[in-house]
Amino acid sequence: MLLTWADSTNDNVDEVWRYDGATWTQGPIDDAVAVFWNIDESINGFDRSGCRVLCHAVNGQPAMSLVGPVTPTGKWSGVKQRGDIWDMSLGISNVRGVGNDYFFGIDEAYVKNPTTITPVIRRRHDAYTARAPFELNKRVDPATGKNVPRYRLRAGLTTTTTPYPQIDQVELITGDMSFAAGDTIPYVVFYPLDTPWGGSRDDLVAKGVWLDGQWTVEFKRKLDTGHPADDIKFVKKAGQTSYYVFDVALFNRTISQHTYSGPISLEIKQ
User: Fold this and answer.
1) CA 138, CA 187: separation in Å to the nearest integer?
2) Cα(20)–Cα(188) distance, rounded to whole angstroms?
3) Minimum mean pLDDT among 176-180, 207-211, 227-231: which range?
4) CA-CA 20 to 30 A from 233: which of 39, 49, 221, 224?
5) Number of domains observed in the structure of the chain
6) Domain coverage including residue 122
7) Residue 260 lies in a domain
8) Top-confidence residue, 221 or 80
């Protein structure tokens, strides 16, 4: 799948630390794009409204009520509804050439205790993560209670030359190190780039390129990943056309506010 959209700025570096002479602060996040699929056509209203039925109010109705109300017995009717999200951080994910393959579904605590737990839809992936291929460069300063960087770049490296360092390119910050106003430090530190997430989160090959005011992103994935519980399965039927509805969301240096396409139909012909 190939996606292109206009964006006047190439925002591909995530939350760089900047020092003002007294305090460390973090910059904005990188750009991102997400493709949302309705697994087995299980999400009520998705074909008409796309991902708004899960993330937004539609015509004044809360998303939860559109997905499925709680029955008189306390059982939420949306418990079997599942979505597959292909997420591409145009900084963090782009460095590895691998997208984030998320599963979107009901909070597992509700499934186990439907009469006492409020149903909450969650974007889940941690259950499929053996070890994250990176860590966030932060710790809590005991003196101030604020987040500060844990590592700094080794001598000769800068956030311009090395915005996403690997673990052997950084060193722990100690009390005898000093910093000047304007110093910057990366927020994300990678382990070897081929370190896998584990499970179905590794199913997507992806890459994004910004050129002349436009992002171009390509996703590649098997038609059948072998993870039917949390990935959509694409089927080619001889002499027939298969249809799969999806939605696309664009994030311009934000984690929540975004534009979205509305439902689009993918046709696969054999």
Assistant:
1) 7
2) 20
3) 227-231
4) 49
5) 1
6) 2-13+30-131+204-269
7) yes
8) 221
Count CA atoms within 13 Å of residue 146 on its CB side. 8
- What is the spatial distance between Cα 83 and Cα 228, in angstroms, rounded to a whole number? 11
Residue 159 within a domain: no
Report the C-alpha gap between 183 and 131 in whole angstroms. 30
In a domain, 136, yes or no: no
In a domain, 20, yes or no: no
Residue 89 to residue 13: CA distance in whole angstroms: 10
Q: Give the other-Cβ count within 10 Å of 131's Cβ.
A: 11
The phi, psi pair for 127, rounded to 5°, reads -65, -20
Q: Tell me: the pLDDT tens digits for 230-244?
A: 899 999 888 899 999
Residue type, 118: T
What is the percentage of the chain residues whose pLDDT exceeds 90?
52
User: Tokens 């000093």 correspond to what residue?
Assistant: 178
* Burial (CB count within 10 angstroms: exposed 0-12, middle 13-18, buried 19+), residue 217: buried
CATH code, domain carrying 233: 2.60.40
Per the CB < 8 A criterion, the answer to whether 55 and 257 are in contact is no
pTM above 0.70, yes or no: yes
Residue 146, token pair as written in the block: 């604020």
DSSP 8-state secondary structure symbol assigned to residue 10: -
